[in-house]
Amino acid sequence: MKQRRNLQLAEDAVAYSAALPPAYFKTDLGGAWLGKAEGFLPRLPDESVNLIFTSPPYALHFKKEYGNPDQDEYVDWFLGYASEFRRVLKRDGSLVINLGGSWQPGHPIRSLCHFEILIALVREHGFRLAQEFYWYNPAKLPAPAEWVTVRRIRVKDAVECLWWLSKTAQPKADNRRILAPYSEDMKRLLKRGYRAKERPSGHRITHKFTEQEGSIPPNVLTLGNNDSNGYYLKRCSESGVKPHPARFPVQMPELFIKFLTDERDLVLDPFAGSCTTGQAAQKLTRRWMCFETHKHYLEGAKFRFEVDGLEEKEPKNGLPAGPKAKQVELAL
């Protein structure tokens, strides 16, 4: 049975990548392609992708080595991908975008780029806002220094937005897949029992308030991003490969992949960087595709799919664990 299932996954991988050039590297479940997303997206079939999870270059005033559009061009740049994103998504598929905020040049006031993108995707491109999420990163440095640490007129910006969008009002989703362990207080409350009553807020707690399989997580994700001893960075150092400077924790795409997809579903990251999304999909037995324009970042990304990289123990953060998947080289 397992052998038949693995064969089916391999056949699926061949099918969805048939219209693309050879992958830069590949596994049994997916591959990473070197090139621009605007060149690859039109080659994908209509309604072929279950989840697009991505973190595009931010609308920062200063230039990054991985390339980021000018702030005054950023919204139009990103919206240039909107129609293709919508076309390749399945009807019950989801688009999750991690967008960090930015400051207006020379002034302690914020850019509205990430909000403008959200509004335009809904009002002009037919997406629905399923829910907004926020990533709180306790490890964020206090910046910009001029406003935060020198003049002391702003506070540390430690939250980034994650917009969960969909083509319909009912995208595939199941929060039972991402339940977190109950807190000790909740465990005591459930053991003692809860008397049905109306709370001061007006909410009525009924007799249906009983123990479930775990706690439903909130839409605020608390994930530090200060990994300095992980497998990816270790292998980059050993091999003399420069790591990607803007990585997000693998637990972030893992949560959305569990929440919004099933095994064998296809996950796409069109701005892949070091392929953290692909790593998360591989570990969770999803098919995956990553597009990246910089060759040296894909060289480092290979390390994420080595057996030790896939089986690396993750820091405890309250997010549920998932099955591991080992790397097997197959022709796509």
Secondary structure category? alpha/beta
Number of domains: 2
Can you tell me the overall shape?
A: globular
**Judging by the overall fold, what is the CATH architecture of the largest domain?**
3-Layer(aba) Sandwich
Short summary:
The protein has 332 residues and is α/β, with parallel strands linked by helices.
What does this entry look like structurally?
α9 packs across α10. This protein is 29% helix and 17% strand. The chain contains 12 helices and 11 strands. Mean pLDDT is 85; it is low at 320-332. The protein has a 9-stranded mixed sheet with strand order 1-2-11-10-3-4-6-5-9, with helices on both faces. The protein is of the alpha/beta class and 332 residues long. The chain has 2 domains: 2-176 and 216-310, 3-Layer(aba) Sandwich (Rossmann fold); 181-214, no CATH class. A hairpin with a 5-residue loop joins β7 (197-198) and β8 (204-205).
Give structural attributes.
single chain; 332 residues; alpha/beta; Rossmann fold; two-stranded antiparallel ribbon; 12 helices; globular
